[in-house]
Amino acid sequence: MTALILEQLLNGLQLGVLLFLIAAGLTLIFGVMDFINLSHGSLFMLGAYFAVLFQGLTGSFFLAVTLAGLGVCVVGLIFELLLVRRLYHRSHLDHVLVTYGLILVANESVAILWGATPIFSGLPESLSTLVALPFGISYPVYRLLVIGVGIVVAAVLFWLVKYTRIGMRVRAGATNRAVVSVMGVNISLLFTLVFGFGAFLAGLAGALAGPLLSVQPGMGETVLILSFVVVVIGGLGSIKGALLAAIIVGLIDTMGRAFLRDFLSAFLSARVASEAGPALASMLVYILMALILFFRPEGLLPMQKRS
C-alpha cells in the first residue's frame, strides 16, 4: 500500500509539472499582456504533433522535443504578430471569441495534415525502462525525466523573471505597463517575446506529454481546462502561484482518481462507491477552485495589482 501511494504521488507530481509548463505561459501572457488565450491548448497539441514529425525526420527523441518547442514558439510569434497584437485594446470577450475560433482552426488543420486517428509517440529504448526506487517501487524512467525537466524549467523561469533585465521588464510590465512604456521600453517587442516564450513552454509540454498520451486532434482542450484551474487557484499572473497550484491540482486529481472509490467504499455500499467515486474524483479540482475563489478570490499567491 505504501508503494502504491508513493507511486501515485509521483504520478501526481509528473502531472503537476506538465500543468505548470502550460499554466506558466498562460499566466505570464495574462499577467503581462492582459490577454486571455483560449488557444493555448492548441499550442500544446502542436508541440505533440511537431515532436512526432521531427522524431521521424531526425531519429532523435531529445532533438525532436527541442525542435518541437522551438517550432511552436515560431508559430506563437507569427500568431502574435499577425493577430494577437490587434486585440490588445479590445475586450476580453473579443480575446475569447478569436482564440476559440483558433482552436477550431487548429483542430481541423492537424486532422487534415495528420489524420483524425490517434498517433502514439515512441520512446527510445533507454527511456522505456523502469528504475528501482525505495519501498519496492519500479517507476518509468521517462516519467522521472518529465519531472526533472519540469523542475529545471521552473528554476530557470524563476531565475529569468527575478534576476535578469528582461525579467525585470516583464515584472514591471505586469504591474504598471504605462510607466514602463514611458521609460522607453519597447512594449510591443516585450509582448511578442512573452507570447513566444509562453508558446515555447506549451509546445515543450506537448512534446513531453506525447509519449504519455495519444496524440490526436483536440488533445489540448482537457489540459487547457486544468491549466485555467491552475491559473485561477495560483493567482492570475503569478508564476509562483502557478507552480504551487499545478502541484496541488496534479496531486489531488491523481490521488482522487486512484483512491477515492476505495475510500468511499468504507462508508458506502460497493455499488454506490463504484459509481460515485470516479464522478466525484473528476470534480475534486473544481471543488477546490470554488473554495479558493470563495475564501481567497485573488488566488493563493497573487501578483501585485496592475496600476
TrEMBL record:
What stretches pass through the bilayer? 12-31, 38-55, 61-84, 96-121, 141-161, 182-205, 225-252, 272-295
Keyword vocabulary terms for this entry: Amino-acid transport, Cell membrane, Membrane, Transmembrane, Transmembrane helix, Transport
> Which compartment or compartments is the protein found in?
Cell membrane
- CDD domains from the entry? TM_PBP1_LivH_like
InterPro entries, per the entry: ABC_transp_permease, BCAA_transport_permease
Provide the topology term for how it sits in the membrane. Multi-pass membrane protein
Q: Would you say which domain of life the source belongs to?
A: Bacteria
| Annotated PANTHER family | ABC TRANSPORTER ATP-BINDING PROTEIN, BRANCHED-CHAIN AMINO ACID TRANSPORT SYSTEM PERMEASE PROTEIN LIVH
* Similarity comment text for this entry: Belongs to the binding-protein-dependent transport system permease family. LivHM subfamily.
Query: Mind telling me what this protein is named?
Result: Branched-chain amino acid ABC transporter permease
Which species is listed as the source?
Answer: Tabrizicola soli
- Please spell out the taxonomic lineage of the organism that makes this protein: Bacteria, Pseudomonadati, Pseudomonadota, Alphaproteobacteria, Rhodobacterales
